[in-house]
């Protein structure tokens, strides 16, 4: 990628930058986004859902940390092996510099069997990444040829840009104090302090190596000491080795596009909050589903909706211990569930229930797409599909769960009872519509899944006496879907009972086993969605415009395109499945990262990034295609 010779204040910097221009860094506590110009424009500390310290992604004044050539330059970038250490190679007319960025993992340790709920030896082999992460960002610059000048700017702005911290010199670096966090920057060069933060013009010749580290602590904690160059090198080596060891501990993928599947598996681990095992849907907030349309949401939380899809993907990748940990997080976070009320659909990554939504009016938003939101009001919505997704996850993990304790057994039984009691109610659906509740077909389908898995699981739950009721209600749900969800004029199961509009979520019918792959109604539904919900690029929209209670139209949904590929494979058409899979996979950026949506006109990324749902879809579609071709 070419970059013109521009001063720091005039560079392509902020919310105008394409989403696909960013790379992900992770220490499994938080995540950073780094641009091709060497700028960290998004970093929340100390957790994924904490306020941003660097937030230029959403406003030019919300903070960044930039290391970029002063002259016109070209960038090539890649991850170091199977890791989240990013290497950016800057080339100018005068030289070449390598910039290596990572969030430090700290020492990696092995999980003991007492720490997990597995029945096999997975726990004894499973590596726990970032259990002792120092909450530090590492940046190492090395000139490999010629000479180069680089502009350095360190401009933290805690609390999403609200706080302009005071910068003071300390031995070996800079201390930034202001707001709820303090950050110590280790710097091997003298820095000037001003309105733009701590700045310097770096001059490197071949063989020169500069090492920087920024470590964040809470206001009540003692500021950490600056790092020695040897400590930064050792931490970077430790981080690279930790990611690679974790990757090597899992079986290699033998299906289509192994490099993208492997990167997707790594993304799920990168988005998995180390202390609890929760997986954030994405590490960002308010990257819009349509520019300027107000469709901006905070995705730094864990959705029950994702449970069964995530467990399938992790299990397919051989990550059984990780899948169990995610499932246990979900059941523990929801443990206060009351059967007479809907199950909460999402939780904070520490298990928090209150995710109240508010707007940050001081931020202009990516490409002026206001409002910027933190929190997510969808936590208050009734969504009946979560019952099926939770029990389906338990079913997929049945061979890896020890005998459940009384609390877990009764909780899962309560979930099945709730599906039996509530399936006839309308809800907001999987896509969290902000319009009127409907009798969504997908919600009914997942209630059927909940009851079906509960019947099959009854002996493991040791409550066989409830199975006859669950079985009877399961049969009633099936009849309702087949009679009220099927629209013979459309030749498809439609979005909602009695409706005529289509919804890509219905593609899940084959994956959950509601109908066999050769059922004519299922084949017809898949074909109808392929014909009417695909955009000119071949990507699938979630649903027809004007049905979600919001103004404007969103982009095409990457996950739904992978669902189409999976459904085509499960209905016996692997060649067409590969074509659809290729269309969706082509949406990844040069590092194999996927966003939530794609602009139907330009093909540019939209929505929060990188999106776990998209990477989960890629893994499960690849699995379905591989199995279909083997058959």
TrEMBL record:
One of its GO terms (biological process) is trehalose catabolic process. It comes from the Bacteria. Residues 260-622 form the GH15-like domain. Residues 14-92 form the Trehalase-like N-terminal domain. Keywords: Hydrolase. Transmembrane segments: none annotated. InterPro entries: 6-hairpin_glycosidase_sf, 6hp_glycosidase-like_sf, GH15-like, Trehalase-like_N. GO terms for molecular function: trehalase activity. This is Glycosyl hydrolase. The lineage of its organism: Bacteria, Bacillati, Actinomycetota, Actinomycetes, Glycomycetales.
